[in-house]
Amino acid sequence: xxxxxxxxxxxxxxxxxxxxxxxxxxxxxxxxxxxxxENVRAGMSPDDARRQAIxxxxxxxxxxxxxxxxxxxxxxxxxxxxxxxxxxxxxxxxMFAFTAIVSLAAxxxxxxxxxxxxxxxxxxxxPVAKPHELVYVTDERILAQPSPRFSYPFYELVRESxxxxxxxxxxxxxxxxxxxxxxxxxxxxxVSGNYFGVLGAGIHTGxxxxxxxxxxxxxxxxxxISEPFWKRRFAADPGVVGRSVQLNGQPxxxxxxxxxxxxxxxxxxxxxxxxxLAMQREVGRNLFIEARTNWLELVGRLRTxxxxxxxxxxxxxxxxxxxxxxxxxxxxxxxxxxxGDKGSSPARGDQRTALLGLFALTGLALALACVNVAxxxxxxxxxxxxxxxxxxxxxxxxxxxxxxxLTENLVVAALGGTAAVLVSPWTTRALGAxxxxxxxxxxxxxPRVLVFGVFVSVxxxxxxxxxxxxxxxxxxxxxxxxxxRTALRAGSHRPGAHDVFVALQLAMALxxxxxxxxxxxxxxxxxxxxPGFRADNxxxxxxxxxxxxxxxxxxxxxxxxxLEQVTEIPGIQSVSLAGTVPLSGGRQRQPWTNxxxxxxxxxxxxxxxxxxxxxxxIPVLGGREFNQGDGRASRAVLVVNExxxxxxxxxxxxxxxxxxxxxxxxxxxxVVGIVRDAKYRDLRGEAGPMIxxxxxxxxxxxxxxxxxxxSADPGPIVSAIRLAMANIDRNVSLFQVTTLExxxxxxxxxxxxxxxxxxxxxxxxxxxxxxxxxxxxALAVSRRTRDIGIRVALGATRRHIVRAIGARxxxxxxxxxxxxxxxxxxxxxxxxxxxxxxxxxxxxxxAWMAAVLAxxxxxxxxxxxxxxxxxxALAAIRHE
Amino acid sequence: xxxxxxxxxxxxxxxxxxxxxxxLGTQHGYGLAKRIERISGxxxxxxxxxxxxxxxxxxxxxxxxxxxxxxxxNRRARFYRLxxxxxxxxxAEARSWEQTTVLIGRFFELKPGDVT
Lengths: 880, 116
Fold this sequence. Notes:
The complex is a heterodimer of chains A (880) and B (116).
Chain A: H1 2-15, H2 22-41, H3 46-57, H4 60-71, H5 74-92, H6 94-123, E1 134-139, H7 152-159, E2 166-179, E3 182-191, H8 195-199, E4 203-206, E5 222-225, H9 227-234, E6 244-247, E7 250-258, E8 273-276, E9 297-301, H10 308-322, E10 335-339, H11 350-383, H12 385-393, H13 398-435, H14 447-474, H15 479-490, H16 497-528, E11 538-543, H17 552-567, E12 572-578, E13 589-593, E14 600-608, H18 612-616, E15 620-623, E16 637-641, H19 642-648, E17 658-660, E18 667-675, E19 690-694, E20 704-710, H20 718-728, E21 734-739, H21 740-746, H22 749-783, H23 785-793, H24 798-831, H25 843-869, H26 873-879
Parallel strand pairs in A: 3-8, 5-7, 14-19, 16-18
Antiparallel strand pairs in A: 1-9, 1-10, 2-3, 2-6, 2-9, 4-7, 5-8, 6-7, 11-20, 11-21, 12-20, 13-14, 15-18, 16-19, 17-18
Chain B: E1 6-7, H1 12-24, E2 27-28, H2 29-39, E3 44-45, H3 51-61, E4 64-70, E5 76-82, H4 84-108
Parallel strand pairs in B: 1-3
Antiparallel strand pairs in B: 2-5, 4-5
Helix pairs in contact in B: 1-4
């Protein structure tokens, strides 16, 4: 305590630079006067008395010194002096400082940014009560999938278990939210009624969802919104509870706002709105009794002190007894509980590896940035050798000098780090968005990120300081002989660590830039690919008549009425239906027998409505399109694509051929048309064989997607379609309303992500390697100033000088680029499926990028080489 | 005859200053130096000036406080006094000093044969 008090007093003395000696002087005077007066009283002469007093007082100057030191912290004073001196150095060589700071800021910034995302997705616990008790209820499939899901009937059974304090279910569900007539997309979660209770998520305003909200299907139109969404969409309106919003066109009432910034248990896919599972049909899902569709993620909470493995054992025992209660088609599972304290996230698993790989890459980039700055610092210390020698000569200790150099580099690193940390919220948000489109990271500085930034900066400062400190050790007092020998030795052609690192940087920059360029080309390739259909002005909207109570007998009429009514809407060119939408990820396959080979084969089969091919813009090559007449009463018909025609009837006309259903052997229909191949699964690669069957000839009540082609932007006609549907049947609602263009666009998303990542890291690497080449050349020039001077004095021309310096740097650049080319072959192999429409060995791209990098490297080394040619022979020799 | 004076041991001067201030109350630096010399019976070799850095240290630590005041001959002098924290510290250090004395005393009383 008293040490602390003394320390604080001295610290404040140091910082405020209060050097108040008047007090001591006055006390000292008083002391001596009193002593002198007493000595005089004792009989001494005034002069003797004074002399004796001073003698008894002791050595005045040393006492003053001790008094001064007591008032301040000497170490702190020295350090403050060093910092001031460091700033003076920065002002003296602004270009050096600027390059160093930018270089470190880029390196540190990249690390801080990646760390922020890693922290957000992989390290931060959920903002709920006792997150360590949360577990994901998964099963043995966890070995193959990051988060195995379960069906609703399965959940209903597990929910009853008393092993854990509770088990909640959730599923992501994106929603169209309409507030005050304005519609926008929002991330939603369908959750069980106990979700908030089991997760222990706090509530900001109102109430959470409760088990009572999840009883009767369709009877609980209530929603809880997240705090960020509340601030974003409702401007933090305190009266938001009780407000009505439309979710996918259905009215819901907001009952609460979640607290502590809770955005659901999936941190990679933040939820804005939570609605009860009982309302799944209203937002477009109807999986209450569907036992084969696994779509729910289960989260449980352990009892206090309960272990995960014992809980899993108990759960398995209990479940085995009840397995018979499962509906047919549901698999019996062996439960595995995995820790859920940090939430689940699509960033787990393979994306986790990607993220950590990125982290390693930025770590490498920072190491290279450090080497760059160290290289620049070596140039500086060569220039400062004289200064160092003078300071040593006038009595500065070597350790004092080293501390000074360390401080200088720490200041540079601190400036770089500060810049990096200050911009990190924005770069983090950008990286988060690139990583997963829906991940919106809040613009705030997390304390953990701050600590990480400080840590990395200090480490960087220490690392960078090593080089000038080592250089300062070589400084000898006798400059004349020793100094020049050092210079000569350093001027040799021995490759140093700097050179290796610079070559590595060039290699890294080149491979990143080549990857980015290839990806950009792929994007361009993808958007120019002919998918086989026309994506513009095509609106998609799904309908689920089964949930509104339609059976096989009435379904035919429903579809016919729908098509008729929607066609009437002005601005619509044509309307049709289909079970499978291109690029939606969904597919339906049926077993067929290949008449050419007799083998049974699963073929993609699409049930489509009349005018389907006209609506989607798929050209009919022969025969005819389905029409209103292809109903249950008429004969069964089929349309096939070219690919199938070739496979089933090679070198024959498929029109008029018949196909049988393999199981029953019944005729499935006669081919009445051939259409051009269209790409349903993936724009890359070839279209697969496809059989089209008329939806009006089946008795299926499955959900269908309305395809609407309009003459202009389809946006405004959505409400007209909604109105038309409401007139037909209020109980059938539209869901998954989107456009084909949007679908097409989202299929580019992953490639676009990769472009952003490789592009930015390539840019970063380019910046670093330019600085590196500059540094290494400048270092060579500064070490050889004397050498060059002598050559010039002996009659060397500029060309000779350029060749002497350039040969080495040129070799370095060549080696770096060579390595980079090799690296990019490897990298592009890894990206395999992402690269499209260009061969991975695309020579032009490789050559262009190498040329760009070579040019930038040459510019970077030209600056110091130019300086070398201006070396004044006399000055250079005299300098030594 | 040259009298051999005792050098001041590390830490003991602090104790002397605190105790003197405790007994005599407020004192200026010169007075303090004189008292310490007198109490020690001039057995102590003390550079009077060394008192001042020590006083500053004790003040920084909060054991003593100081203010300007008029001295006997009406000059301005800095007067030091013990604070509550200083008094507690004096008690604690005196106790530890006594314990050390007792302990060391026992060793000095040792005779050959006392330890087997």
